[in-house]
Amino acid sequence: MQPPPPAANRHQLHSSLAVSDQPSSLPSSSNSRASASGPPDNAMMRLLTILAAAMPACLAITPFSLHPIPRIHAQREASLTAATLNATQRPSYNFSVPIDHFHNDTRYEPHADGTFPLRYWIDDTHYRPGGPVIMIGSGELTSVLRLPYIEQGIGKILAEATGGLAVLLEHRYYGSSYPVPDLSPLNMRFLSTEQALADTAYFVRHIRYPGLEHLNLTSHTTPYIFYGGSYAGAFAALLRKIYPDDFAGAISGSGVPQVIDDWWAYLEAARHFVHPSCVNASAAVTVIFDAVLLGDDRDAVRTVKRWFQLEDLLDDDFAYTLHWGLMSLQATHWDPDIDEADLAQYCAAITSPVPWYASTRTLGPEVRRILRLAGHNEDQDGMEAMLLNFIGATRKTIAQLQTCEQDNLLGQHCLSKRGAIDDESIPQGMLRPWTYQTCTQWAYFVTGTGTPDGVAPLMSRLVTYEYATMWCPDVFKIPAKPDMDSINKYGGFNFSHSRLAFVDGEHDPWRQAGVHALGHNEDRESTTDEPFLLVEGGVHHWDQFGSKSDARSSWVAPENVQLVQQEEVRFVKAWLKEWHEERGVTKEEDFGLEL
């Protein structure tokens, strides 16, 4: 059901029941209900949070068509997942859901009749009889690394405010929730957003939570509020629109309901919100390297590759590797344990008027020759310092990332995109399954060639659409473009539904794929029924993160984040009141009835 069209003024905030399976074999101090669903002790909680936070914020729905150094990404995800699992005292559980919900859809042929275990966690610390279920969707990442969202983040905040049960639910094909024995191209066919949405609806209709088996907490009797961030934010919006009877409300944090094929605009947030001196220097560096790589002087190409000891990398892989600077905007965060310094260090280096790195001083003559080749015959002093500092900063980054231990690769062979997601075994990280989702439905292929004429390029023009999409035909044998209409038909930039909130970050690179995209919905009003909130200075779903119990100084969530979270509590309470009134019940205790 579509609500009435929104009014004026964007609002920006400033300052038969199945039985659940046995728990997974994770470390646990006891089998009591308290240890199963209550919080771990403070010291363990802080270790767990730091481990999970060590996963860069940029790993969430990073455009993998252009992920800098994908093998390193996979290696880091695997090591942090293992460390977090070793640290947590909270067991996970599995619930059986159908492998194939749509036997009439030819996309999923040959069909399957079986079930598979969908992993989840619960926290009943704040639950009171009659309270809602606050469900956090893990999206395109293992749920292990989303645990802080129910320990201290938005899941805890909403559960504490409403007497709710916090639930963290994994997405099929991620973490340990696999419906197939491997990730061969044929076995990827059951990975679609529609199947995952149906998993979630099936779960809430049939679940019996461990330790609360005496209560009927299915969606038939209990209001469910779903929160998702990034891809899971779009998932939350779709869930509320497609399954409105099962979800009383949903919050889309940095959601991306508008699928875009050529996603050149990913770096437009940097153009608008990173300091102009850094943006201009980045554009200048891009033009210089493109002049060399797209030119006819192969000796000059060998020279610039030799600066980084990457002579054997193909030109497109080389250009791809150099674009780590502005791409790191997504990894900036208000929490010092999560915030990454890459962007600040990069900008400080390339905007300095003097060379920083002693190790690049001998490159002066070569740099001046390359500048002349790129058309810079005057003002070489400032350009020379900029390029020398770019070389030094990029060398440092590459040196930190240049060992792919899991693939037994060293040096530049680790940096190539080619062959990076060929592994079909399970379990594995998010890289292969999310890439498949981009090839089939979600796109977001970041390119340099898509940059409009007259716009200073922030991405190399060697990063073509063919390069960005190479994994689709090479790995998955998918020649066609993604079925973007399967998502966009629900609303895209104008996505709207009752009791559905959109909360976005002002500086988020993914803002351009959502309802707060620049140039869209500038007069859309925020209401209790359809909150429309923009976090001032915020980046990627900042509101999903909460302060730790012992937080001090800048570890405490800033005012702009706290104001949004307070507003989320307010409208969720209003939604729950409305949900009960629709059913003719005013006492929440009449729900969650004992069986």
TrEMBL record:
Any one Pfam family match given in the protein's UniProt record, by short name: Peptidase_S28
Keyword rRNA processing set for record: no
GO molecular function term, any single one: dipeptidyl-peptidase activity
GO terms, biological process: proteolysis
Region (Disordered): 1-40
InterPro entries on file: AB_hydrolase_fold, Peptidase_S28
Low complexity biased stretches: 18-40
Keywords: Carboxypeptidase, Glycoprotein, Hydrolase, Protease, Signal
Alphabetical list of Gene3D superfamilies matching this protein: alpha/beta hydrolase (3.40.50.1820)
Keyword Signal applies: yes
Family as reported in the entry's similarity comment: Belongs to the peptidase S28 family.
Protein name, per record: Serine carboxypeptidase S28-domain-containing protein
